[in-house]
Amino acid sequence: MRRVSFLVALFLAVGGVPTHAQDKYPSKPVKVVVPFGPGSATDIVMRIVGEQMRAILGQPVLIENKPGAFGIIAIEDMARSRPDGYTLQIGNPGTNALTPIVYKKKFKIDYEKEVTMVTRLSEVPLVLAATTKDFAPNVPAPKTYAELIAYAKANPGKVRYASVGVGSNNHYDTEAFAQWAGIEIVHLPNKGGGAAITNDLVTGDAHIALVNAASSTGVIKGGQVRALAVMSDQRIPDYADVPTLKELGYANAKGLWSALYAPAATPRDVLETVRKAAVEALGSEPVQMAFKKQMIAATPSKSYEDAQAFNQAEIAYWRKVTEQVKVELPD
């Protein structure tokens, strides 16, 4: 009887050992939830990096696109999953720094307690782009940044700009820029994502927009959309004659970064395995070559602590932006 009790106790003890301690992580496919549709800059980054992570981890890295609600759907899907490293999420400033601030009440989780950044992945420049369609009868679209500002100042409320939605990062970014430039422009929200607002420029529905360099290259090089300035520390080689907004005096010109996230309760050793795999993938030749074609820069975190510091700094930055720039948010 004592032996049976001993075996039962031993069985329960072994059963209580966390899965990651019994089986070396990862022992099955890893899912990464993307808060945007296929073809978005964030999706492009994850598919490029994920392919190399598959080779490094020895397990498939499955991409699952769950767009909507400014990233809340994707974030909550990840945060509510078992914290074992098998469900991750890729995010950007709009989904994982700004949304938890402006749409905090819409979350059904405690974002700051239940979500952790594992590592930064990349940064892609944003382009202040303009349509090539006439702004008005006998008013051609501006060919330079200076022409845009001159027209906007002379015609308050006549310039329309597109964003991926009310409360999005490019909504706040554009409003902050307009406030600095001293121009009054009209918001044209579009829930269709980056490709949709680029199309707004192609059709002329919007006059200007902040679009990411990775997904707008085709229409810019094809002459359907014109690059007036770029949001990056240095000029983009592909658009060498286009000035940066920093050159033009706007200090808060930030690129569009991406980062990998996991449930905060995930064991530290698992988080470290994920981080190291992502960092190794980012440094690989296939990723570097693919990134170069898309004008994307690899920006891996030096450590888990480095990722936390970056995350906190970004949330602080966007909190300050939302305090300085007031936008009317939907209920």
Which features characterize this protein?
disordered N terminus, 44% helix, five-stranded mixed β-sheet, globular, 13 helices, 18% strand, 331 residues, alpha/beta, six-stranded mixed β-sheet
Short description:
With 331 residues, this protein is α/β, with parallel strands linked by helices. Helix content is 44%, strand content 18%. It is built from 13 helices and eleven strands.
How do the helices and strands line up, and which of them pair or pack?
Layout: H1 2-15, H2 19-22, E1 30-34, H3 41-57, E2 61-65, H4 72-79, E3 87-91, H5 93-102, H6 111-114, E4 115-124, E5 126-131, H7 145-154, E6 160-163, H8 169-181, E7 186-189, H9 194-203, E8 208-212, H10 213-221, E9 225-231, E10 256-263, H11 268-282, H12 285-294, E11 297-298, H13 304-324
Helix pairs in contact: 3-11, 3-12, 5-13
What does this protein look like?
Helix content is 44%, strand content 18%. The chain contains 13 helices and eleven strands. It has helices at residues 2-15, 19-22, 41-57, 72-79, 93-102, 111-114, 145-154, 169-181, 194-203, 213-221, 268-282, 285-294, 304-324; strands spanning 30-34, 61-65, 87-91, 115-124, 126-131, 160-163, 186-189, 208-212, 225-231, 256-263, 297-298. α8 (169-181) links the parallel β6 (160-163) and β7 (186-189). α3 (41-57) crosses α11 and α5 (93-102) packs across α13. It starts with a helix and ends in a 7-residue tail after the last helix. The relative contact order is 0.17. Residues 1-21 have low confidence and may be disordered.
